[in-house]
Design brief:
The structure is a homodimer. Chain A is an alpha+beta fold. Helices cover 51% and strands 18% of the residues of chain A. Chain A is built from 14 helices and 10 strands. In chain A, the strands form 3 sheets. The first copy, chain A, has a 5-stranded antiparallel beta sheet, sandwiched between helices. A 3-stranded antiparallel beta sheet of chain A has the order 4-5-6, with helices on both faces. In chain A, helix 1 packs across helix 4, helix 5 packs parallel to helix 14 and helix 6 packs antiparallel against helix 14. The longest helix of chain A is centred in the C-terminal third of the chain and has 27 residues. Chain A binds a DNA duplex through helix 2 and helix 3.
Chain lengths: 353, 353
DNA sequence: GCCTAGCACTCTCTCCGCTCGAGTGCTAAG
DNA sequence: CTTAGCACTCGAGCGGAGAGAGTGCTAGGC
């Protein structure tokens, strides 16, 4: 039955399903045959629509909360809607310009990403997500070291894509300001343009070379470099606009509000999920049952990868109740992720040129 | 009446008030005369207690939600309790050690502060606050400049107290790596140990000196220095553990949950409030009506300044419903703020020595 | 053969009135 | 000054009645 669930749905049933999904997304209420009949799109009586609806229910696209209620779409119903029935609404010029401005105005990529989740939340009225995974595969432009205290050094890594990462390192040796400056210069020149992962491997290999055994300064350089690259890069996940769920009727009661807020706290699970999504290229929509996380809380996620063509940097998207305006969310997330990617690519050329 | 509300309260009434506050903090329910009589601390019948309670109500320390309910403390009741009746419970050794460890383990002050709000939230089961105001009066140890893109420079300021601040500057001039290094060195040596505020004034004065007019390098240095000091220092306010309010019975219904979450979003108002508090020295407790913000939402705030003796750095504290265990919160906040201050002072000596 | 009117049925939601319990204030007696 | 007793008030909880929405089924019309 699940092998080809799409083809064997006649045009009328498709229209009915679409209308039910649209109306339910709009109102949040179960949709009954009478309501549907009166909407004007069908020249059918409630009784006929009931037959169609019964069929759709049997196929698993609709469900009834209780006997005498209307129908609401199931996860599968939403999925079919997204795949075959949805007509993405294009963004308003206002939305476009808000995004363009926000992205172009900010000077630093970090800053853009920081604001992106809040921006997305505001535009979508859902919870905005921005995920930046560990950056071991990102190419650096420079690496500098600044003494913070005797045995503590702050390492500032600037990526070719304009991303700036700060890491604090505890060191065994003491370094003078001069030494730190020299080491930074050496590493930036020697390893500029290479990925952190590669740099680490090269540094480790260097420890074995004879030259390094006898050159004290080189030894310190390698040691500091390895410390810098090894210091943990944290996953960063911004979850912004959690308060937007306060307005959603599906979370109207205190118990589900509670559950939902707690769920959004579980960042590790979200990180796992987004990390998997990172492998896929286009816009991704996860509906309810399609992942453990979304299933648990009747969430859906609309997300897309961003970053330069060569290397994806992370994910942006939104998370909200299954009943959301996919037709609006999809182009929104899509547009923002493309804007971010463009910004990052510009940065790369700019930084390298 | 409000001129000397404290003295004219006989010992018995004080005991009754204390007991009511304690029991109400514990249960969250209004306390009736019968309950009070049965608790064992008074050899009085409910009827007698009712008389005392009626007096306390007349004085504004107690209130009744409705005619046939018990009494709950008013803001004034809590205030009297805090000033005169409360016996601060000392921290458990476990709590002490958790705080000590968390503070001593972290290497960077920023990191400690970051975690402090979460730690406080965990230990108190309230919402943790950490506030760091703009740092114009903080003394620097060094200032370094790193090129991020052609006209964008990242400035890393290390304070004598170990605080590290990064600021991104857009510049008019282009700088080579060498120049940036020289400028950083010059500023660090010339201005190390001075406050940012002072540095700014000195830099501005220097622009007028004749020497600066003719020395191109000095001109660039001053320009970059001024940009660095002028770039906005943002107030930082961490609000952590908002989910803890999900468990509080006073926010059991969806409407007040909603209101409360939205209130905690209004960071500007909180910043204003904490900034005022920053002037006062010891532990501060704000109950309900005592500030616009706390009044609005039946919040109370327990907070204390932290920082080295010479200059306060910011505020730490908790925010929660008026009905909170003040006797436990007070020493908790007090201890943490002292631990933070100690850490910061150590850092200062370390950094300077 | 598909569509539709009609009907009986089911289920939820809301309102209403009832009772019960807790707590109060007042009064009068110890 | 304390306490027992009493009448009163108010809110929470329970259950039944009724309205409303929606369904499935069946029989008749095009």
């Amino acid at each position: 039955m699940a092998t080809r669930p799409d083809i064997d749905l006649d045009p009328r049933a498709r229209e009915v399903l679409r209308e039910i999904v649209l109306q339910h997304i709009d109102s949040g209420e179960p949709i009954g045959s009478r309501t549907l009949s009166k909407c004007g799109k069908f020249q059918l009586s409630p009784a006929s629509l009931r037959n169609v609806m019964a069929d759709l229910e049997e196929l698993g696209f609709l469900a009834q909360p209780h006997t005498s209620a209307g129908r609401i779409p199931t996860d599968r119903g939403y999925r079919f809607f997204i795949n075959h029935l949805m007509q993405s609404r294009s963004l308003s010029t206002r939305e476009r310009s808000v995004i363009d401005e926000e992205v172009s105005v900010a000077s630093e990529i970090d800053e853009v990403l920081h604001h992106a989740s809040a921006l997305l939340s505001k535009l979508s009225d859902q919870v905005g997500l921005v995920f930046m995974p560990t950056l071991l595969q990102f190419a650096i432009r420079s690496m500098d070291f600044i003494s913070v205290a005797d045995n503590r050094i702050m390492c500032v890594i600037v990526g070719t894509n304009g991303v700036v990462v700060n890491k604090l390192i505890e060191t065994r040796f003491l370094f003078t300001r001069d030494e730190l400056e020299k080491i930074g210069r050496y590493i930036s020149i020697e390893f500029g343009g290479q990925t952190l992962d590669r740099i680490r491997r090269r540094l480790i290999r260097m420890t074995e070379e004879e030259r390094a055994q006898h050159d004290a300064m080189l030894q310190k350089t390698i040691s500091l470099g390895i410390d810098a690259v090894n210091a943990p890069f944290e996953h960063e996940l911004y979850v912004e606009g959690a308060t937007s769920i306060l307005n959603k009727p599906e979370y109207a009661d205190a118990a589900s509000l509670r559950k939902t807020f707690l769920a959004l706290q579980e960042k590790e699970k979200l990180v796992d999920l987004l990390e998997t999504c990172l492998r896929e290229e286009g816009l991704q929509i996860l509906v309810g049952s399609e992942s453990d996380f979304t299933q648990m809380h009747n969430f859906s996620i609309v997300a897309r990868r961003y970053g330069s063509g060569t290397a994806p940097l992370g994910m942006v998207g939104i998370i909200g109740p299954m009943r959301m305006e996919y037709a609006r969310m999809a182009p929104l997330v899509d547009y923002l992720s493309r804007a971010l990617s463009r910004k990052i690519e510009e940065e790369e050329h700019h930084g390298n040129g």
